[in-house]
């Protein structure tokens, strides 16, 4: 007896069925195929399948950044800026050309929630913000670290349990922040589809490596959306000597379930990579063997290079040049030792030629877009491939600029596609 086409398709192994699906030329037909059954939905919404199906498109793209409003002077370590954060779109942003408040990305039920908020990190359309906490008298409470996770795709905001901290728990670069989603815990093997959650943004994990001057130690705080409380571990660097202003963190790079930060160790005058396994909470520090002729106190950041290679972006002290240091691919990120090489130097191309000496500082990076500031208070969006610098004319004027003045936002297209199909 001959089998029906549906029965034949059901009998095919996943790898063979994937080979058939990837050859479906009509996009609408492919999307309709995802509604046939749960198995087909799982295969088609696998992000590695999507990358194979559309290799010409980057899975993520830079769309703009959130920045604080104008204020006089810089905030104290435990204070928050007063105005609601403002989103400034990048050129040809998929979110449109208009400036928007953070509150405009969520439903009206959260109106007023973001006055005095500070965006910290973002990933896959989830934005972690610190919100103002108040005591019983209505005054700001600096011993409560109140965070919210905004889902810009679903226009929602989840309030995390208040984190009780000391009054000197720093909010800015003395802490390391990271957020991971369900996508980050999937298999990294592109040929082996994994069962993803019904919505890849339904699960997230927020991580803080927080420094306080009360006990001069770094403590690990982790919150998972499937739990009701924070997991905490004191002195997470396992007895390393601590001192005031011990160091500062870059933005986290998340890859294969690991979070990585560049850590500026001011006391020892060196750079280290802090590696954290988000599943186990294991932390290791890797000292970078960079042969630099000056102390590494200038801002720098990590990025993911080609094929997921962990890379360091380092601004040269003299001249408008950016060095890219790459970790050797044959070295494990969690082993405590690795080899780093300077593989490329980018000549930064400023939009206007002038004879004034401008010191350039790295602020933040996302999806190949780098924010750079100069000592004249100007901020530029820079393309890492071409080195072209474009002045951001809408940047709020301030007397000084730090990397926490902005938070870059990317859109992850596979995640949007998966979320839309699984609603």
UniProtKB/TrEMBL annotation:
Every F-box domain range: 6-57
SUPFAM superfamilies according to UniProt: F-box domain (SSF81383)
Pfam families per the UniProt record, alphabetical: F-box-like (PF12937)
Record protein name field: F-box domain-containing protein
Organism: Triticum aestivum
Biological classification of the source: Eukaryota, Viridiplantae, Streptophyta, Embryophyta, Tracheophyta
């Amino acid at each position: 007896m001959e089998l029906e086409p549906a029965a034949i398709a059901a009998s095919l192994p996943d790898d063979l069925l994937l080979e058939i699906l990837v050859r479906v030329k009509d996009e609408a037909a492919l999307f309709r195929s995802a509604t046939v059954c749960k198995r087909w939905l799982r295969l088609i919404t696998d992000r590695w399948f999507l990358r194979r199906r559309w290799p010409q498109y980057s899975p993520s793209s830079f769309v703009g950044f959130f920045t604080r409003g104008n204020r006089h002077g810089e905030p104290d370590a435990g204070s928050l800026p007063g105005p609601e954060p403002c989103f400034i779109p990048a050129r040809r942003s998929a979110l449109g050309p208009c400036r928007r408040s953070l509150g405009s990305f969520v439903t009206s039920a959260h109106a007023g929630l973001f006055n005095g908020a500070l965006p910290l990190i973002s990933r896959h359309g989830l934005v972690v913000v610190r919100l103002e906490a108040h005591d019983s008298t209505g005054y700001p409470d600096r011993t409560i670290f109140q965070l919210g996770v905004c889902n810009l795709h679903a226009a929602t905001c989840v309030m995390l349990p208040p984190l009780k901290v000391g009054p000197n728990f720093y909010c800015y670069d003395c802490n390391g922040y990271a957020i991971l989603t369900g996508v980050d815990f999937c298999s990294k093997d592109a040929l082996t589809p994994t069962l993803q959650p019904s919505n890849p943004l339904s699960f997230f994990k927020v991580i803080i490596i927080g420094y306080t001057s009360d006990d001069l130690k770094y403590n690990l705080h982790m919150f998972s959306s499937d739990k009701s409380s924070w997991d905490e571990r004191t002195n997470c660097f396992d007895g390393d000597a601590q001192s005031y202003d011990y160091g500062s963190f870059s933005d986290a790079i998340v890859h294969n379930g690991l979070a990585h930060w560049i850590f500026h160790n001011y006391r020892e005058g060196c750079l280290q990579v802090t590696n954290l396994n988000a599943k186990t909470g294991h932390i290791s520090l890797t000292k970078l063997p960079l042969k630099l002729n000056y102390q590494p106190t200038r801002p720098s950041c990590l990025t993911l290079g080609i094929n997921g290679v962990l890379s360091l972006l380092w601004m040269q002290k003299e001249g408008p040049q950016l060095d890219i240091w790459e970790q050797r691919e044959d070295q494990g990120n969690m082993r405590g030792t690795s080899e780093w090489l300077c593989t490329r130097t980018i000549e930064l191309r400023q939009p206007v030629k002038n004879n004034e000496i401008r010191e350039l500082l790295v602020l933040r990076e996302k999806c190949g877009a780098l924010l750079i500031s100069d000592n004249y208070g100007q901020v530029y969006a820079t393309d890492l491939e071409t080195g072209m610098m474009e002045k951001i004319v809408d940047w709020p004027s301030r007397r000084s600029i730090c990397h926490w003045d902005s938070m870059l936002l990317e859109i992850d297209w596979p995640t949007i596609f998966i979320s839309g199909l699984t609603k």
